[in-house]
Amino acid sequence: MEIKLVQKVMKVNDELAQGVRARLRAAGVACVNMMSAPGSGKTSLIEAALRHCGGSPRIGVIEGDPDTTLDAERVAACGAPVVQINTDGGCHLEANLVGRALGDLDLDALDILLIENVGNLVCPVAFDLGEDRRVAVVSVTEGHDKPAKYPKLFRGVDLVVLNKADLLPYVDFDMVFFRDTVRRLNPGVLILDVSCRTGDGVDAWVAWLRETAAVADKGKAG
Ligand code: MG
Ligand code: ZN
Fold first, then answer.
1. What end-to-end distance do the CA atoms of the chain give, in Å?
2. Could you tell me the distance, in angstroms and rounded to a whole number, from the CA of residue 166 to the centre of ligand 2?
């Protein structure tokens, strides 16, 4: 009984995600689902992109949080359109929530939509939100063993951001172990070392977002 119910929930989510994907494709908007543990710096990466991209691509943001509008306020302070989804304690976003949030965004004014998922390395992975690409964010303070412990997340992403790279001299982070694990799980995946504090790597992050937006644009034309 229980298994059947779970399968039905996932099927409904997948159908709603396809609807989100179709709406975004029709509008030529690329969509990125950002996943990480709490505190790894997803919001800081979004702020850094907004501050450094010079309006290209045009970025909109959906902020998923169990509570508070703190992250949405930070994004709004950068001048970007942002919609807050409060999950009321829920530990991941689902496609129905994203679908509703789309109604509060002017998709014609966007090239790319960044979805900041709820900080959690486990269940967000299972829920398609209608995104084109997935990003895993890990900060060096979390430890080099996170990909080994949460392989599902790292197998299914298009980019791994190693954040807070400026703190590497102060923590015991085994870079070789980290990179080897990521490459074993997801051969060929791009790994970017970024520090939102110093700005190192932010150019590469913005370049990746531009390339992602360009792919969606091509999809619309073709
Ligand atoms: Mg955040
Ligand atoms: Zn969850």
1. 44
2. 31
Ligand nearest, relative to CA of residue 120: 2
pLDDT for residue 222: 44
Report which bound ligand comes closest to the CA of 9. Answer: 2
Please give the distance, rounded to the nearest whole angstrom, from the Cα atom of residue 142 to the centre of ligand 2. 20
DSSP element (H, E) containing 13 = helix 2-27
43 C-alpha to ligand 1 centroid (Å): 4
Domain boundaries, the chain: 2-216
Q: Please give the Cα distance from 181 to 15 (Å, whole number).
A: 33
* pLDDT reading at 118 higher than 70: yes
Closest ligand relative to 73 C-alpha: 1
Per-residue pLDDT band at 217 (split at 50, 70, 90)? confident
CA of 196 to the centre of ligand 2 (A): 27
* Residue 161 in this model has a pLDDT that exceeds 70: yes
For the segment 71-82, what is each residue's pLDDT rounded down to a tens digit?
Answer: 999 999 999 999
Domain 2-216 coded CATH 3.40.50.300: yes
Burial bucket for residue 94 (CB in 10 Å: 0-12, 13-18, 19+): buried
Q: Is the predicted pLDDT of residue 1 greater than 70, yes or no?
A: no
Ligand 2: centre distance to CA 60 (Å): 24
The mean of the pLDDT values for the chain is 95
Taking the centre of ligand 1 as the mean of its atom positions, its distance from the CA of residue 72, in whole angstroms, is 8
- How many helices (H) and strands (E) the chain has is answered by 8, 7
